[in-house]
Structures
1.
Amino acid sequence: MKIIQYLVFVVIGVLFMVSGILKLYPIEMLELDLGYHTGMPEWLSMIAARLLIGFELVLGFLLMIRFQERLTLKWAGAVLVFFSFYLIYLMIQFPGQDNCGCMGMIAPMSPLQSLLKNLGMLGLIVFLLVIKSFETPVFLLRLQKGMIVFVVVGFTLPFVLNTIDWSKDDMRQSFQPSIQQNVLTGLKRKETGTFVLAYLSPHCIYCKMLARKWEWFKSRNQWETPMHVVFMGQNIESDIQEFLYQTGLSVSSYTTMNDVEFIQKTHGSLPSIYVVQNEFVVQKDNFISFNEQNLRNWR
């Protein structure tokens, strides 16, 4: 029984730590989810995402070394319950979402799959909590003496492994020489003045993230700036509707373009976003450099 008990602690702890590590690359998905669902500004979402990952790493480690077993298990259970309600919210509000981001992009899971995982982990926690007493091995008691160090390292690690790029101006400037005015030619659109032009693929995960990022910024700032989307492919109306359904993207108009012409215009960069003023492209971005403050300057 002692061996089983210890293995269960390890399994739960490892799952928490793996979940945190997988969210690190790309961390932008977690940043986007936090901002999109809470309305927090972009800079705060970057900090909050890393703190959340650090919390998962620390909690997983404390479970593995069995620090204050019952208290740590209750914390783990509370976290799982909270995330389970969040997953239920996703299933109701975004029924078409195919990856909740709970295990990053390396191991995509639907909200339902992640909910079942959480319920399984909760079952293991309940199993441990019904045990009357715990006996912590001596070597784990020694590890617990350095708990403060491990906690500090755990919360710091995400900021070291995936540093925050506070200014995306350098990345944006690197795109500017490649701006092509021909991205405007031949487009059947109704937008004039200032608008955003996005070249997207309905099957590209970063394009989906860009769509949600745009809606996040737009809702925070009450923007009415129109967006025209050019989707890659032909005869893909059902795919486009699924894309719009999954992302919640609201566009003023969209068109499609065959793959060859699409790649020629964008140089194969997905997604490609352009700010257009009076029929002239003034800025080019991708998903990473596309940010709230810079868009405000062009409104």
2.
Amino acid sequence: MDKPALHISLFSDYLKPNQVVFDLKSKDKVEAIEELLDVLAKQKLIVNKKLILTRIIDRESLVTTAIGYGVALPHARVDSEDQIAVAVGRSDKGIDFDAHDGQKVHLIILVVWNPTLPGLFNHLFAGLARFLIKPENRGRIMAAKDKTELYEILSGIEFRFIHEEKIVSRARLLKKLQEIELKRKKASKEQQKELQKQAAMIREEFDKDVLSRFDRLMERYGFAVADAVEGVCQSCNINISTQMYSAMEESNDIYVCENCGKYLVSAKKKKK
């Protein structure tokens, strides 16, 4: 059987030097997102800044886009002429993004992309996560002396585009979808509209296979996502393999319990 075609792209294909802010002036996440959108608007990469800001903030209100380790990936899918628009901001002092690990965010990568490209963000997310999860890479970013050096580090990040590849991520967002679907069963007609809007926003970020499995589990068992606490699946109370649980602690990817088949999400860590 032939291997799937592999296309390697670099972050420099999407990110240009004038889309990087070396020292963000903003002190909170809404201001920071708006500051990065101003960069994209100035470069004429986006048209309706107000609409995009609203979409991003709505998305943040569902589940934080902070992925841990001082990194956040705020994003939105909107109709636009360009396929994708990216802006990156670095903050020395850090910005509170309600991160699950309790850490302030020092690197914000904002992505706006066209709805006609549903798989693009998943590939970008996976490539960025692979790079940023390594302490040495985050260390290089924070040690950068100026905008030029920061751009050089970021521009070399690789993205691997494989047509058959199923990149699955944002486990806590899938759990949020479960919470919304459960609320919809008891909601009034007026509440249904808002819940439907939130559910649709989340569903945009997952491929059909993930959503199909999610819906089947919800229909059969009433829930599809279970917490993993101290290495134990809270759905079936069976121990998860040490290797899997360790991987879950180091990422926000979705894992499936080998015993009960539910999606697993690592329990949220308490802020110190």
3.
Amino acid sequence: MRWQGVIHKYRHFLPFTEDMRVISLNEGDTPLIPANRLAEILAPNSGLKLFLKYEGLNPTGSFKDRGMTAAITQAAHEGSKTVICASTGNTAASAAAYAARAGLRCLVLVPEGKIALGKLAASLAYGAEVISIEGSFDDALDMVREIVERQPIALVNSINPWRLEGQKTGAFEIVDQLEGNAPDWHCLPVGNAGNITAYWMGYKQYGKGLPQILGGQAAGSAPIVLGKAVEKPETIATAIRIGNPARWRQALEALDESGGIITAVSDEKILESWRLLARIEGVFVEPASATGLAALKQQIEQGEIDPRGKTAVCILTGHGLKDPGTAVNQASPPINLPAEIGALEAYLES
């Protein structure tokens, strides 16, 4: 069987030599799903071509695996024995899995009570040492930045440049899946801003067209939109609950160079788009993943984006099982019936 993974597939665009041991779980090659019914809801009779890049089908259920294969490959190559990260959940799960595959010790710092159950469970299952701190993600990131200055530990958050090298392969795949063309609009959630930075890197390097970037932040956690750090960010979209993004400057550069937009969307709008993805297109994501779509819907409604004849790709960053609690809380309760065929028939006729 031929082994793939993003480093093997795109090595000639990546700074990894042929003799390096690649730590991979066969990440990448996620589907680009046409969303014709959803496009008609967003922009009726406009000819909008909408696609969903479903990154929740990576090995640990999020886009983080693209960058983590690169970060852990480099850490192992440099002889690191321990890796560490701060996380709202997806980075923790990904780091834990790839560290396990490489035979490395993994420590993750998470903000107490601010991590979705599915992400915490995965991190523990992969054998990570999960440390819950009485503070925010930004506090955790400050701590891991300081500890790697004191101890021989590799930091694998998105401030690690190798993470961006892996994540930029998502842009390569989109262009390949669109038969050699970049979309007109590339829409995605923005939390720590590593992904927006990496995708823009990828589009520029691939040299097959440049989209305009549309970044969405949750209204309660929108430092880039506000132009200032948010001390206590709050949003149902836990994956982007970050008040001071590590890649803030690079995100602004991507937006400026692409002629793009960054906007804030309410939790209500995020959940609306989350429901649309599941109920109209059959794609189940964690709430933060719907933020790019919510931003696109909002900008079309406000007349900021003209959808006529355009192609838009929305990045769905994580699988819905990352945050099962939200899905259960937002759903209607099951219908209870007696175990009798007559009761079922009566229900169907009601």
